């Protein structure tokens, strides 16, 4: 009997070990050109492993990821693991010339990092030029073995990637815009899992279809992988229950429409509780800037009930108007966090650093002599934060300069805590005030002590155009304490702070002509970008970076990998 109990104890210990042990998940990413048929034409695009979207990476919290990137394309490439904390693995974050130099054509580089303290839906994408239009895919983080979702387990799960498609070479589209100084050409279609859907020409046969069983509940892991557009998303005749955003659990929120800015993810549950039939899921843009051309089209996929007549015409949802700011704001502002859920982080109450960051569109001089560009006043469109227009280095990555203490000529540490002047930020009468429009190019960072808590007012401006900007933080999540329209009021708006269960994000769509206030703890040494996740604005300079100092051992940045690409 004693021997049996001993063997049983050993077996239980082994089982417990297998349940809690992490694994190493390894993938090969072959970045290569591919000819696809979309919108009645053939087009050469850049993909990973020959698919659009790219491969789904599925891991569990605690796993190690090893991704071998083989660049067989004609372009420089890096891969960013959007939303992954990269705790003590900043070398794997991916933004070109920030944490690494690009992987040149014909070269290979291996990303190695651990998934720590995160569950939910994230994604990966190229972080060089506009290549992320087609170089992207889902990164799904499930609970460790033995742990569970904080909601009933769905019958099945599906990643839904909302994308944006150009019937052109996206690198050429970007370069043409940069050469003329104007905004680049708008997209030709939106996509659901790589397909435009029934409402576009020559697209019906490829429309994404999802089969469901009546009465079952499903999880959709929705990712906005579009380059330049926020998107409304609906399923005809079905409600959705939001349970997570940006890989952070939320209090359940029931809605018939969601909206996502580029870079954001939203996990929803929906029950197939309608009569047997076919129902469109559809997405169209949410546009906040007035008088600017945009892709006013709708992408669709089809949810098909098992047993439904194949001849049934799918029902189309009534999507919000493209400029329906009240609906968008209601969704964004009503989400709250889940303090009883896994990996909840309470709001830090003591604040060490306060910053006020304004951002928007700017102008840059067209060039030498009598050159005329296609932007306002014959100048070149630009963008900036606190009147600094971010410019990437080219000879050394910023993280290498940080690690080797060789910052001279790479970046400076004088990014301002406040804009250079106080003005009526959201007053549209200032839109073309030339004294405010020009922002100098610079590569400036703000230095933070390890472990410090930072509170930032993110303030949109009306310069050139009044619009909503999705701001993405690399390396950190943040609590969204409050958001609103107009100029932030430091006396009255703090009364709106949610310090109990605010939503946690890595990307926030700051309300059009408005503000948001966020708080985070700088617990990850390295160089971390903060930038607008509209790819039309990032090359113009709408970004900055934080330099987080090393903490006490072992909270220090390790040496770079030996195969780190050279500039």
Automatic annotation (TrEMBL):
SUPFAM superfamilies: Cupredoxins. One of its GO terms (molecular function) is hydroquinone:oxygen oxidoreductase activity. Binds 4 Cu cations per monomer. Keywords: Apoplast, Copper, Glycoprotein, Lignin degradation, Metal-binding, Oxidoreductase, Repeat, Secreted, Signal. Its EC number is 1.10.3.2. InterPro entries: Cu-oxidase-like_N, Cu-oxidase_2nd, Cu-oxidase_C, Cu-oxidase_fam, Cu_oxidase_CS, Cu_oxidase_Cu_BS, Cupredoxin, CuRO_1_LCC. One of its GO terms (cellular component) is apoplast. Residues 1-22 form the signal peptide. Residues 31-144, 156-308, 414-550 form the Plastocyanin-like domain. It is an enzyme of class 1 (oxidoreductase). One of its GO terms (biological process) is lignin catabolic process. Its cofactor is Cu cation. Pfam families: Cu-oxidase, Cu-oxidase_2, Cu-oxidase_3. It comes from the Eukaryota. It catalyses: 4 hydroquinone + O2 = 4 benzosemiquinone + 2 H2O. It is found in: Secreted, Extracellular space, Apoplast. NCBIfam families: laccase. Belongs to the multicopper oxidase family. Lignin degradation and detoxification of lignin-derived products. This is Laccase. It comes from Castanea mollissima.
């Amino acid at each position: 009997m004693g021997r049996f109990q001993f063997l049983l104890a050993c077996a239980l210990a082994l089982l417990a070990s297998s349940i809690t042990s992490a694994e190493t998940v390894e993938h090969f990413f072959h970045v290569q050109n591919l000819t696809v048929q979309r919108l009645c034409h053939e087009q050469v695009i850049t993909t990973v492993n020959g698919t659009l979207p790219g491969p789904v990476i599925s891991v569990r919290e605690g796993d190690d990821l090893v991704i071998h990137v083989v660049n067989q394309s004609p372009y420089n490439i890096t891969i960013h693991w959007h939303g992954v904390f990269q705790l003590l693995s900043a070398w794997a974050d991916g933004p070109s010339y920030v944490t690494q130099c690009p992987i040149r054509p014909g070269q290979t580089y291996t990303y190695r990092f651990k998934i720590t303290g995160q569950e939910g839906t994230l994604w990966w994408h190229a972080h060089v030029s506009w290549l992320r239009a087609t170089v992207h895919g889902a990164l799904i983080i499930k609970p460790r073995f033995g742990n569970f979702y904080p909601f009933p387990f769905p019958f099945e799960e599906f990643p839904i990637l909302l994308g944006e498609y150009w019937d052109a070479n996206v690198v050429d589209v970007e370069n043409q815009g940069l050469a003329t100084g104007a905004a680049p050409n708008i997209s030709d279609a939106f996509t659901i899992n790589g397909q435009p859907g029934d409402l576009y020409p020559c697209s019906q046969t490829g429309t994404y279809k999802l089969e469901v069983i009546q009465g079952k509940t499903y999880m959709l892991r929705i990712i906005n992988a579009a380059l330049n557009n926020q998107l409304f998303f609906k399923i005809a005749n079905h409600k959705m229950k939001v349970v997570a955003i940006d890989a952070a659990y939320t209090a359940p929120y029931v809605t018939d429409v969601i909206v996502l800015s580029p870079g954001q993810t939203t996990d929803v549950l929906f029950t197939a509780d309608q009569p047997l039939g076919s129902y469109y899921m559809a997405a169209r843009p949410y546009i906040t800037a007035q008088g600017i051309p945009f892709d006013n089209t709708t992408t669709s996929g089809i949810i098909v009930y098992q047993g439904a007549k194949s001849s049934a015409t799918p029902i189309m949802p009534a999507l919000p108007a493209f400029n329906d700011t009240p609906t968008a704001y209601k969704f964004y502002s009503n989400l709250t966090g889940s303090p009883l859920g896994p990996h909840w982080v309470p709001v830090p109450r003591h604040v060490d650093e306060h910053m006020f960051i304004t951002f928007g569109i700017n102008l840059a001089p067209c060039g030498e002599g009598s050159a005329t560009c296609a932007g306002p006043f014959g100048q070149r469109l630009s963008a900036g934060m606190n009147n600094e227009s971010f410019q990437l280095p080219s000879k050394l990555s910023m993280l290498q300069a940080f690690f080797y203490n060789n910052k001279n000529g790479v970046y400076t540490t004088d990014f301002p805590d406040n804009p250079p002047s106080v003005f009526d930020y959201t007053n549209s009468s200032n839109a073309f005030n030339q004294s405010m429009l020009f922002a100098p190019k610079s590569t400036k960072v703000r230095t933070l002590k390890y472990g410090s808590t930072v509170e930032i007012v993110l303030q949109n401006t009306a310069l050139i155009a009044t619009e909503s900007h999705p701001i993405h933080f690399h390396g950190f999540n943040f609590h969204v304490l409050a958001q609103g329209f107009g100029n932030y009021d430091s006396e009255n708006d703090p009364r709106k702070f949610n310090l109990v269960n605010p939503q946690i994000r890595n990307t926030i769509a700051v309300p059009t002509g408005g503000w948001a206030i966020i708080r985070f703890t700088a617990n990850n040494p390295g160089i971390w970008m903060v930038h607008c996740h509209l790819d039309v604005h990032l090359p113009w300079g709408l970004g900055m970076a934080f330099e987080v100092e090393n903490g006490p051992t072992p909270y220090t940045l390790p040496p770079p990998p030996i195969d780190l690409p050279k500039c």
